[in-house]
Design a protein that fits this description.
This protein has helices at 11-22, 38-41, 60-78, 95-106, 118-122, 143-156, 259-272, 316-333, 347-351; strands at residues 2-7, 27-30, 45-46, 49-50, 55-56, 83-91, 112-114, 133-141, 160-161, 170-172, 177-179, 182-189, 206-217, 226-229, 232-236, 242-245, 278-290, 296-299, 306-310. By secondary structure, the chain is an alpha+beta fold. A hairpin with a 2-residue loop joins strand 11 and strand 12 (182-189). The site of flavin-adenine dinucleotide has 41 residues, from helix 1, helix 2, strand 13, strand 17 and helix 8.
Amino acid sequence: MTDYIIIGQGLCGTFLSYYLHKAGKKVIVIDESQPFSSTKVASGVINPVTGRQIVTTWMIDELLPFAWNAYSEIGKALDVDLISERNVISFPSSQQMRDFYDRRIDEKNVYLANIEAADVKYNPYFTFLFGAVEIHPVYLINLHYMLKGWRKQLASENLLLEEAFHEEQLKVFPDHIEYKGIHAEKIIYCNGINAYQSPYWENLPATYNKGEVVIVDIPDLPQTNIYKFGSTTLVPWYDGLWWVGSTYENNYTDAGPTELFKRRKDEELKFLLKQPYTIIDHIASIRPAAMERRPFVGLHPVQQNVGIFDGMGTKGCSLAPFLGKQFSDHLTQQQPLLPEADVKRFQKILSGRFSKAD
Ligand SMILES: Cc1cc2nc3c(=O)[nH]c(=O)nc-3n(C[C@H](O)[C@H](O)[C@H](O)COP(=O)(O)OP(=O)(O)OC[C@H]3O[C@@H](n4cnc5c(N)ncnc54)[C@H](O)[C@@H]3O)c2cc1C
């Protein structure tokens, strides 16, 4: 008998299975590898300020130290460096944005500082009109190495099924679940946007948020900082390349990379960069998100053997470690979940099609 079946090994499935495994529970992870899952396309940045009005990210004072420890710990277990501290050098794209930054600096936001003489330092690389602001500390996560490392570990312990999960083969009983001959106490959906197709979760107020990215070679730009120009961010990527993105689209007709995005990014880079560059690749994915921007964590209000850990939106890198630990403690030690994230807040709409007698 297995304790937990976990569907999906993105950020959510990785952290939840890691913490449950660490707590001595037997987990089986079912993951059909997809080259462009949200976690694989993400830049891996944890930024303490967010949005057009430059507000401090939800819960960030707690999330930053937790994330540092969590990625360091899992990195040590997998023998790979997963987290590094960086700066974001942000170049406001308008006077209005510059004013927002200045207001937050005046309010003594601890994560922001004006950069004096930004012209001297950054003129050789970029065209910018409204000075520059430093955001610090910002963490950069090596997501691909984490996914690969944990996958290898799971496989070596025979805890990974590399295949698609088929909902119709799941049988839920009052005290356990069965899937393809595996008996488990509970099953937890960590399969990103696909969880929203499940009859257990289809009524959640979820959204699908598309992000497109180009991967760029800029040989003469040192990979020390992350650079931000309005909604366009340049993040050090693998093999010395740069991740340049992204979009935030809730209405899209094409889930894949589009020519229009590539053309626009190319034009933007032509204007911003004073160094030669080449677009090497172009990728896209859909962020699993929640309409009210708070994740979905916990057990189904009627089917207590079925759970979900999903809906991280744009903040998976900081939320998944913190909430993954919390969910693991909830499952193994009955610790409470953060009420804003607990899926029980949707008790009414989730209970609809399931009666207690099911
Ligand atoms: C362009 C872009 C940039 C981003 N940048 C950042 C960032 O800088 N910082 C940040 O914090 N967040 C960022 N995000 C958001 C972040 O990627 C997500 O919050 C997070 O990765 C979601 O993780 P997940 O595990 O829920 O989903 P996913 O990463 O989608 O993982 C789901 C897993 O389930 C598997 N799966 C799905 N269906 C099935 C099935 N039926 N059977 C078996 N397996 C299945 C998939 O293969 C996948 O491995 C970004 C997202 C995008 C798209």
